[in-house]
Amino acid sequence: MVQPAAALGSYGMLCRASLTSPTLGVALKRWCRHHRLLTDDLVHRLTETGGVAELVIEETRDLGPNARILPDHQRAVRYRLRLLAN
């Protein structure tokens, strides 16, 4: 069953917006770019060196007490990117 767009949440919508990409690399780059629409506190960049891709999550400002959510955010991002890759 396909979920209605409202039930997907912001990150689900980012993944859905990337599904039509011709390659996984393009999808991941789109996802990183679209993530900036949600927040500019954390910038996601996809880099590639020697055929190895790396997703970098960069803090653009001091998150203060909110920094404790960063490990949870990283896990959530890895989960959604694995879904996107499948």
Describe it.
This protein has 86 residues and is an alpha+beta fold. The chain has one domain (5-85). The protein has three helices and two strands. The chain has helices at 5-18, 24-35, 70-85; strands at 42-49, 52-59.
**Helix and strand sequence:** HHEEH
Largest sheet report: 2 strands, antiparallel
What is the end-to-end distance? 18 Å
Spatial order of the strands forming the largest sheet: 1-2
* Secondary structure tally, helices: 3
Mean pLDDT: 81
Structural class: alpha+beta
The radius of gyration computed from the alpha-carbon positions, rounded to a whole number of angstroms, is: 14 Å
Shape: globular
Low-confidence parts, pLDDT < 50 over ≥5 residues? 1-7
User: What is the domain total for the residues?
Assistant: 1
What oligomeric state is this? single chain
Helix content: 40-55%
Strand content range: 15-25%
List the helices and strands and how they pair.
Elements: H1 5-18, H2 24-35, E1 42-49, E2 52-59, H3 70-85
Antiparallel strand pairs: 1-2
Please give a quick description of this structure.
It contains three helices and two strands, in the order ααββα. With 86 residues, the protein is of the alpha+beta class.
Structural key phrases:
single chain; globular; alpha+beta; 86 residues; two-stranded antiparallel ribbon
